[in-house]
Amino acid sequence: MNSALNNVVRDILRSYEEVGGLNNTDGHNLPSKRALGHVCNRLLQVLFPGFHDDKPIHKSELNDLTGERIRELSTALEDQIAKSLQVTDPSCPKAKAHEVLMRFLGALPGVREMLRTDIEAAYEGDPAALSNEEIILSYPCIEAIAVQRLAHVLYLENVPFIPRMMTEWAHARTGIDIHPGARIGAYFFIDHGTGVVIGETCTIGAHVKLYHGVTLGARSFAKDEAGQIVKGGKRHPNVGERVTIYPNSTILGGETTIGAGSTIGANVFLMHSVPSGSLVVYEEKQLKVLDKSQRTEALEIEWSI
Questions:
Q1: Matching CATH topology for 27-175 and 195-305?
Q2: Residue pLDDT, tens place only, 164-188
Q3: For the chain, how many helices (H) and strands (E)?
Q4: CB 205 within 8 A of CB 241
Q5: What is the β-pairing status of strands 177-178 and 257-258?
Q6: Strands 238-239 and 257-258
Q7: In Å, how far are 286, 291, 296, 304 from 300, measured between CA atoms?
Q8: Rounded Cα distance, 57 and 61, in Å
Q9: Considering the domain 195-305 in this protein, what is its CATH number?
Q10: What is the pTM of this model?
Q11: Which of 6, 23, 264, 289 is 20 to 30 A from 73 in CA distance terms?
Q12: Are 115 and 123 in contact (CB under 8 A)?
């Protein structure tokens, strides 16, 4: 057994030498996925005190508990920010990480205010929602949007790695994939949520409602002379205020704008702009209802058409 295991170790070590791009053994101390998962959990506790805890929290405890959580968050997140900044700039001073951290923490009250509008939108937009408490506790969109709004703050600070790691943490938990670069207005609601994809350069106005399976994606990618994809640029659509997009619709392209007050029906594939107040639907073939007891005759009629 020892000999066999030694052979396995030998082969894996050989793979480390021969297969590049998968090792970080001589490089920078990268940010930790596990540590950032813990940070995201702590941030949700700060944003929604009492909703992400194992025991009830009394208002009289809030002052001491919040101070304790912010101090713990500060230590953990500053370390991860410093590691991220030093990957792209090894000489980056740790003081810069502290400055970024403090601006991020200062943005938390504003993020909470935006989330209040998102919860209100969920309550008003879903007849099955019976209370704000139910929405915070059980709706995956609230967790995904909360983490994205937090990650967006760090994205605007040009912090590498961490914003995307945060939104992918939420993606893995909720099935909702929102890039941290997306700019999302107030009163945002994703009903059901599974399979929603929102790209980096997407801009979404206030009072927008999406259903499951919606993609706000890129139409194509510019390439350089060597055939390599050119990074950056406006690639994803703009969605105006008070737009509703129904399930499994795909809207692509950086030049595509959905005008304010529009409704996009289910299963629409759209790569061009539509004006404000539009209703976009596919005209389907006429629905047929057949008598199963006459199935053979019905099929013969169908095949003869």
A1: no
A2: 999 999 999 999 999 999 999 999 9
A3: 9, 14
A4: yes
A5: unpaired
A6: parallel
A7: 18, 13, 6, 6
A8: 7
A9: 2.160.10.10
A10: 0.86
A11: 23
A12: no
Structure tokens at 155: 């994205």
Q: How many CB atoms lie within 10 A of CB 65?
A: 17
Domain ranges of the chain: 27-175, 195-305
Paired tokens of 1? 């057994």
Beta strands in 38-156 (DSSP E): none
DSSP E strand stretches across the chain = 177-178, 183-184, 189-191, 197-198, 203-204, 209-211, 215-217, 238-239, 244-245, 250-252, 257-258, 263-264, 269-270, 279-280
pLDDT digits (tens, 9 = 90+) for 175-228: 999 999 999 999 999 999 999 999 999 999 999 999 999 999 998 777 777 777
Pick from 84, 85, 80, 53: nearest CA to 68: 53
Q: How far apart are CA 231 and CA 223, in angstroms?
A: 9
SS3 265: coil
In this structure, what token pair is assigned to residue 237? Answer: 């659509």
CA distance readout (Å), 267 to 62, 183, 195, 214, 222 = 47, 24, 13, 9, 27
CATH of domain 27-175: 1.10.3130.10
